[in-house]
Amino acid sequence: MSKQFAVIGNPIEHSRSPELHHAFAKKTGIDLNYSRRLAPLDGFESSVHEFFSQNGVGINVTVPFKEQAFAMCTQLTERAKIAKAVNTLWMENGELHGDNTDGQGLVDAIKALDWDLKDADLLIIGAGGATRGVIYPLVKAGVKKIVIANRTLARAEQLVADLADSVPEAQLMACSLTALQGQFDLVINATSASLSGDALILPETLTFNHAYEMAYGKASSFIEQAKARQVPSSEGFGMLVGQAIEAFYIWNGVRPNLKDFL
């Protein structure tokens, strides 16, 4: 009997999670079936309960349900507590457990590019949930300073205030997009600019050695600007694979090699 897994979201048909998990299963010899499930916007909780009542093993959660998944869990990992969002669910001893593997997926993707995070100075553009989810794993990977830049400065300042106590070993700072300047080892775009088609203009006063775009599969003005500056860059497919590998490991106890799937 195959182990049953699913990804739940709305919309869901674009999700590449089934192909990734089936590829991991083939590589590791694990018998599983992984499906897409569309949940009504007002029916996420019932979709989760229904899946686990049918002997489902694990669920990945995508937009727009990660905060609802967080609220449902009785057991949370440290990184999920800090992210305040959950993308990986499983049932254990009758309790719903939740984790957020996005940040570790990003860290593993950056390491697979052989970019060094130890003692790095980072700039993250955007102060939404995507940024909140990756700060803790980045700091645990050795990043020493993170500047969060956002159009609305107050939002970046609030995120820094929320997270500072969770990562006392690193320096967190807020900045408005218009005041961006300085030298960074890595700039990460965590905004939806490339998905919405909005131009993200990086000022000349900003210099950086590497650029990572969290989104993937769309033309990105952020990546184009990095290439124009001849800076090594990557879009977010590696992060997608990395977060999926981390979820696969939580559920199955086996960790596929990220570089095999890039």
From TrEMBL:
Residues 7-89 form the Shikimate dehydrogenase substrate binding N-terminal domain. Its EC number is 1.1.1.25. Shikimate binds at S15, R16, S17, T62, N87, D102, Y212, Q243. The keyword Electron transport does not apply. Belongs to the shikimate dehydrogenase family. The keyword NADP applies. It catalyses: shikimate + NADP(+) = 3-dehydroshikimate + NADPH + H(+). It is an enzyme of class 1 (oxidoreductase). NADP(+) binds at E78, G126, A127, G128, G129, A130, N150, R151, T152, L153, A154, R155, G236. One of its GO terms (biological process) is aromatic amino acid family biosynthetic process. GO terms for molecular function: NADP binding; shikimate 3-dehydrogenase (NADP+) activity. Gene3D superfamilies: Leucine Dehydrogenase, chain A, domain 1 (3.40.50.10860), NAD(P)-binding Rossmann-like Domain (3.40.50.720). NCBIfam families: aroE, PRK00258.1-2. Residues 236-259 form the SDH C-terminal domain. Transmembrane segments: none annotated. Involved in the biosynthesis of the chorismate, which leads to the biosynthesis of aromatic amino acids. Catalyzes the reversible NADPH linked reduction of 3-dehydroshikimate (DHSA) to yield shikimate (SA). GO terms for cellular component: cytosol. Residues 113-194 form the Quinate/shikimate 5-dehydrogenase/glutamyl-tRNA reductase domain. This is Shikimate dehydrogenase (NADP(+)). The gene is aroE. Homodimer. Keywords: Amino-acid biosynthesis, Aromatic amino acid biosynthesis, NADP, Oxidoreductase. It comes from the Bacteria. Pathway: Metabolic intermediate biosynthesis; chorismate biosynthesis; chorismate from D-erythrose 4-phosphate and phosphoenolpyruvate: step 4/7.
